What we know:
By secondary structure, the protein is of the alpha/beta class. The chain has 5 helices and 16 strands.
Amino acid sequence: MIRAAATLLMLAVAAPLSASDAPYVPTPMSVVDAMLEIAKVGPQDYLIDLGSGDGRIPLRAATRFGARGFGVEIESHLVRDANAAARRQGVADRVRFETRDLFDTDVSGATVLTTYLFQSLNLRLRPYLLAKLKPGTRVVTHEFHFGNWQPDRRITVHVPDKPYGDPKSDVMLWIVPADFSGLWRVSLPGEPERELRLTQRFQMLSGTLGAQPLAEGRVSGSTLRLLPAGSAQIYTGTLDGDTISGEMSRAGAAPQLWRAQRVQRGRMDIDAGSELPFTSGSPTGESR
């Protein structure tokens, strides 16, 4: 059944894209700036824009924030215009555009990925992005989200000159999570070794630490934060292969180092299942 599901997923992702699947609608520049700012784009970044239109997002990332950029667009005349704009703006050495199906694009080198695509396309992209992007990669969308994969942050941008709909736009940020799922052995100085069992759905963790259920568990890139129920302890740590290293803190005491070794791998749950209507989730939406 798993193999059959994987085959169906690959067929869905590989389905050719047409211009009608992703019609060109320019992103207002105030939204472009908000997308780049929420991702904290800087000179160290390589931004990939899927469905790049006239190239304004990668171009702005290069001219204002010093980043490198790559855009893919199915409409060849838009690609020609975008590459010409890169030459005019003096960033052709850092930004380029290609006529390409976004599902035939290697995104693995991105540190930031941006989209302004219909909901249906985002849901098709979701498993591909989670499989190909490195943990910690920032993914930013305009208006449309990724279903059950809730954003880590969301802001609402007021856009008085928006050419359609309400004069505002949602900008959402996701941090690609590492997979912490599985069975771990936890070592903490002065305490007996305990088992940590983690189940992960996107960036959310559940499970047990010894006999204690987790009241809260969350992943951001390669880091995690755990709060055992009924305890004042907070565990934070960073994943390196099958090892977590970090600190356990509690009020009134100095932080202690802790370490965990994975003895049995799990698998992060990214199954579409029944897609829930979008909500702002745990992160509170902000306006600007």
